[in-house]
Amino acid sequence: MSDYTAGLPTEQVVLIRQAAERLRREFDGTFNLATIERYIAGSKDILEARAKFTTWMPLLVERLTRDRLRAVARLEADHLDRPAVLFVCVHNAGRSQMAAGWLRSLAGDRVDVFSGGTEPGVEANAVVVSAMREVGIDVAGELPQPWTDEMARAADVIVSMGCGDACPVYPGKRYEEWDLPDPSGQPIDVVRTIRDDIKVRVDALVAHLGLHATT
Prior knowledge:
Helix content is about 45%, strand content about 10%. It has two domains: about 1-80, Orthogonal Bundle (Helicase, Ruva Protein, domain 3), CATH 1.10.8; about 80-215, Rossmann fold. The protein contains seven helices and four strands. It is α/β, with parallel strands linked by helices and about 220 residues long.
């Protein structure tokens, strides 16, 4: 059994073990508990390299592990009935969260959506959360996380926003570079403009993927 709780305080050990059980039920028939624990240990290692994540460690470990397992399940599937998109920016706190929120809203469960940052922040940009709430999309519960190899390999389309050479590059993928201002530190009116620009781009992406918007 992977020692995926090593070095954590007791309260976090309990929470991560509970997360492991939730993931076991969620991926029942796809991954066994040993595999899930191995991915939890790997996610914990990825996140522990960034001390600012300490407070949210159990939740981040669970979310990152879930996304990694979703990606691996895609990679191991014999047939895929829906495309996958990975949105990457620097902090995964603004642009990529807005893009992921728009795509989930417009395409629903007909697309697998991943997002990550090259240097993830601590929490979603509060102004971004407010701007997205204005259009009926709630990203308040999203926490910044890094993108991983599994997510990039599982994606059909990788959209990068301002991360330059640190963005993932994998053969056989469709790449889009969206030149968008960083919403960090910007007032709400500027963030609304960025939000609406992203919506236009996501609309075009939905059309390219052969999907029809649900809203």
